[in-house]
Amino acid sequence: MSVRLVPKLDLMLGECEGPDLRLLMLSRAENVALVRRAIEGLALALDIDPAVTVDIVAATSEACNNVVLHAYGGRPGLLELHVCPDHDELCVTVRDEGAGIRPRPLVPASSPGVGLSMIHALTDSVEFRSSHDGGTEVRMTFDTGRPMTKDIPELVGDRQISPPPGELVVSVASGALAEAVLSRVLAMTASRANFAVDRVNDVQLVSDAIAAHAPATSVGRHLHIALDPGSQVFGVKVGPFQSGGAEALLSASSIGETGLELLEELTVERRVEPDLDGEVLSLSIAG
Amino acid sequence: MSSTRTAKLANGPATAASPAAPSRGVWFDEQTTDRLLRRYRTMGDQRARAELIERMVPFARRLADRYRHTSQSSDDLAQVASLALVKAVDRFDPDRGVRFAAFAVPTILGELKRHFRDMGWSVRVPRGLQERALQVERTSAMLATATGRTPTVMEIAGKLEMTAEEVLEALEARQAFDALSMDTPHQTTEGEGITLGESLGKEDEGFDRAVDRAAVASALPLLPARDREIIRLRFVDELTQTEIAERLGVSQMQVSRLLRRALQRLRELAES
Question: Considering just the CA atoms, what is the radius of gyration of chain B in Å?
Fold first, then answer.
């Protein structure tokens, strides 16, 4: 099934001031694992105490499982995650657009009856609410015990930018956060596409190059990645960029004076595609 | 071995960037330092920058030597210190009325401390995860022998009744404690223990010559020989990470970690 998730602009308007992460995906069980890996990367980049990270991952996992199992009557629908660090507090919001009874009982079948109490036990505060378009939102906050790194580049431009559409959309603040989150998300995608272990590691090199060089010519302070998972091969769209930015990203990935570009060496296809806000670089990576 | 590589790092940029290489012991001549800094600062003279860095590398290494009794490999520490030196050179403002040393020392020590903090994570890897990492490594090798090709993450997961997520976590943990030491002996296929540093020492010379012929103001010659070697094998010779591992007699995971770090260093140098 090929589904394109087109992010709504108003959903991108978070009030988060810190270096945040947003994931837009289908409510499938395998995507919950991806959420966990992304949060682990984020926690490492923000230097969160590993003991607190375990709690954050477990509670978020429960909230996502609840959406997978109950929000859409077993069918896949939208699952959105927003993680926002603010000084010594991390706020995680899990959202769906299901039309079930609100508030639904948070009881994942995998752990009957314990989902809700787990969330309560692991968070410092939790809030359940219906969102304006009929879905449910779980907003959890975690006390991280110490201030987190606030390493975000200046906001470029004054409008909100919408990422390219895909089956899985990652929007993450540029910098160390993008590097840690993207490499884990892409490694997971490559593993699912049946890549050999050493090719999964090559995909991490691609991810590092994107995280390092894309922000220079991107529009906005977030790095946007849209993934189209597949078998043996998968697609990655990066952008939007200002005109010429996609080409600039390719040449910025040059490897010393070998005359080679990393993104060209490690991908099978590269296309520059027009986009609402400029252009998008579309890469195909094969195992 | 370590001293050979020290010489290479110090001499590499000299042949490439500055024909008038300074003799030993003059790396901290205040006047020369000041003159080179101003030339670089006011005129953007890249040769002055290269000469300055090359003069100061032994100084950076001496700072790194303060930590030689710790668990970290001294080569890794020397590299961290050298990179920090490059940063210090690029950020220093001679018009502030502060001596370069007063600026560079805290910068370099700060980077060394940050390195310890980053590496510290790896020693906190829980025991269960360490065991899982070793299981993954053994199973990966076993599957490779049985099938004659590198296994996929899914195949390893299937064999160990783990999820792909658990396998990836284990691989990450394995690389983290690999990072603790480049000089820990590892088993080659013949069963004899050699260090990764040793196995990467070979075949450098041809590459060094090729690099010397190339552009002067490039970051690649500033990388240690082993980093350049591994980049060359992957991208110029187009060997897979598994083939590189076989050639060097190390694990693919070590190749992966080294390659990733080498590219990160190259990027840092190019940006600074």
Answer: 21
Find where tokens 């195949």 sit: B155
pLDDT, tens digit, for every residue of B210-264? 333 333 235 566 777 888 889 999 998 999 999 999 898 888 888 998 899 899 8
Q: Residue A75 phi/psi, 5° resolution?
A: -90, 160
The residue with tokens 């105490």 is A49
| Of the partner residues A44, A197, A204, the one whose CB lies closest to the CB of residue B153 | A197
Overall residue count recorded for chain A in this entry? 287
In this complex, do B231 and A209 lie within 8 Å of one another by their Cβ atoms? no
pLDDT string in tens for chain B (272-residue length): 333 333 333 333 333 333 333 333 445 577 888 888 889 888 888 888 888 888 888 888 877 876 655 555 667 788 888 888 988 888 888 887 777 877 888 788 778 777 766 665 443 455 677 788 889 989 999 999 999 999 999 999 999 999 999 999 988 887 776 654 443 444 434 434 444 444 444 333 333 333 333 332 355 667 778 888 899 999 989 999 999 998 988 888 889 988 998 998 888 877 76
Residues A198 and B250: their CA atoms lie apart, in Å, by: 13
By Cβ distance, the residue of A44, A50, A257 closest to B215 is A257
**Residues A48, A53, A56, A57, CA torsion sign:** positive
The partner residues of A238 in beta bridges, in order of sequence, read: A225, A281
CB contact under 8 A, B150 and A197: yes
CA pair distance A139, A59, nearest whole angstrom:
11
Residue A230 CA to residue A280 CA, distance in Å, equals: 20
Helix, strand, coil percentages, rounded to 5, for chain B: 70, 0, 25
Distance CA A45, CA A179 (A): 8
**What is the value of ipTM here, to two decimals?**
0.85
B184: tokens are 């820990």
User: Quick count: other Cβ atoms within 10 Å of Cβ A228?
Assistant: 19
Counting Cα atoms < 13 Å in the Cβ hemisphere of A127 gives 9
Residue from A191, A253, A260 whose CB has the most chain B CBs within 10 Å, to mutate: A191
Alpha-carbon span A148 to A196, nearest angstrom: 35
pTM: 0.70
Spatial contact of A38 and A189, defined as CB atoms under 8 Å apart:
no
List the beta bridge partners of residue B164. none
Q: How far is CA A68 from CA A4, A73, A115, A232, B178, in A?
A: 18, 9, 13, 26, 37
Q: Which residues of B touch A196 (CB under 8 A)?
A: 149-152, 242
**Any idea which residue has 């064999």 for tokens?**
B159
Interface of A with B (CB under 8 A): 33, 36-37, 40, 44, 50, 184, 187-188, 190-192, 194-202, 204-205, 208-209, 212, 255-258, 260, 262, 265, 287
> H-helix or E-strand containing A222?
strand A222-228
> What token pair was written down for A242?
């200002």
Helix ranges restricted to H, B181-251: 196-199, 204-213, 225-231, 241-248
